[in-house]
Amino acid sequence: MPSGEDPGLYWLAPHGPAVKQGGSGSSRRGGRETNFVEGAGAGGQGDGPKGITEPAAAWSLRRAALQEIAHLRNSVLRPGEDKLALFAEDVSVDTIHLACFANDDLAGCATAFATPTPDWWPGLAPRSTWQVKAVATWPWARRKGCGRALMSGIASEVASLGGDALWCNSRISAIPFYLSLGFGEVGEEFFIPGVGPHRRMFKRLGKKGAGTGT
Ligand SMILES: CC(C)(COP(=O)(O)OP(=O)(O)OC[C@H]1O[C@@H](n2cnc3c(N)ncnc32)[C@H](O)[C@@H]1OP(=O)(O)O)[C@@H](O)C(=O)NCCC(=O)NCCS
What structural domains does the chain harbor? Predict the structure, then answer.
């Protein structure tokens, strides 16, 4: 984001509309402090190709129901396949499904759920470890900060729930994305049948939890 540009700030409303906040800082939701998530985005609508030529607007984030993000997930992560990109953890009580919008148009999604700390975790084990899964943005929304905003939102939400570390099985093509957010790579490349080669990636959250590169 160009320096000096106000990205717009939003708070996360579970299953409700994203609410734009004026200025920076934090606000209250349900009586507790809520971390803001910021990200520069662009206009666009629907899930078709968009000419995003308008000046950057803010991405807005909110919790979403699985049904809201299922089409995007399947289209991006399982294109042309009958197999659905659905996971057992999708329906766990604590699972976070986050959606990112440009105006009212769904642009991206990400899911996270608590897991035991993986035995491959390098160094001191974190207290509470969450797996990030099914991060996807529509092609029209890419390289505009949507994925970064989603991951910042996931980090904020996880931190607010006491989590202090994130990990994922990253597709090889997505490694630069996670590296740019401060994740590290660990272990050898491995193959997930029907999907392709992956690498494990991990990140400890900073004290504030949110943000990229903490
Ligand atoms: C991976 C994905 C979610 C990234 O979403 P995005 O909205 O494009 O991400 P952002 O615009 O926030 O990118 C943040 C940074 O990540 C890095 N990055 C993202 N995509 C990249 C790519 N294709 N090549 C190199 N770096 C990349 C860049 O450093 C980028 O910052 P920059 O654009 O200022 O250089 C998106 O490309 C996607 O949905 N891919 C297909 C599905 C997928 O592979 N999901 C991950 C499963 S593990």
Answer: 9-204 (3.40.630.30)
